[in-house]
Amino acid sequence: MSVSDPQQFAQAAEDLCRYGRILYGNNWSPATSSNYSVRLNADTCALTSSGKHKGELTPADILAVDMEGNALTAGKPSAETLLHTQLYRRDENIGAVLHTHSPTVVLLSQIWPEDQLSITGWELQKAFAGETTHEGTVTFPIFANDQDIARLASRVEQTMQEHGQGVAYLIRGHGVYTWGKDLAECYRHLEALEHLLGYQLELLKIKGERPL
Ligand SMILES: [Zn+2]
Q: Hey, where are the domains in the chain?
C-alpha cells in the first residue's frame, strides 16, 4: 500500500497538521473531534486518523485513503471518512474538506427548528466562493445526526442532487462540513460560516427569540 507521489502526500500531511493547530486553537475541534482532508489526485485524499488530538497532530497522524474510504497507508481512517470522499467524488474542483465541532455550530444546529438555515444581508457572505453581494441568500442544510455514516453520506448526496451543492452543511448537535478548492479557501469558508452563524446565535439572544 502506498501513495503515487510521496512528496505531495508529505506536504499535504504537514498542511493538515498546521490547520489542526489553528482549528484546535480556535476551539472548533475539542476532545479529539473533527477531521480534515486534502485531495491528492482523482482517486486519493490525505485525511486525519481517527481519535487524534487536533492541536497536536504530527504527519504520522495523517493517512491516505481511496475514494471508497479504504486506507492506503498506515493508520485508522476517521469514522466519518465517507463524508469527505462523497464530496471529492461528486466535484473534481473540491480540493480540501474541513469538518469541525465549534460551540456556535453545535449549539445553533441543535436549537434551530428547520432543516435548513438561510442567511442574507451580511457582507461576510462574500467570503464564500461565487458570492458577490450581501444581497444574496446562502443556505446551509441541517441533517439529523447519524452514527451510520454511509447512510448519512447518501442523504447528503441526495440533497445536493436535489438542491445544489452549496458551500457547507450542518449536522444537528454535531458540527459542520465545508469545502473549497484548497485548504486556504476551505478555511476561509469555515471562518466566514463561524462568524455568520455566530451572528445568528447572538441575534436570537438579543431579540429574546426562542426558535424551539
Ligand atoms: Zn464529527
A: 6-207
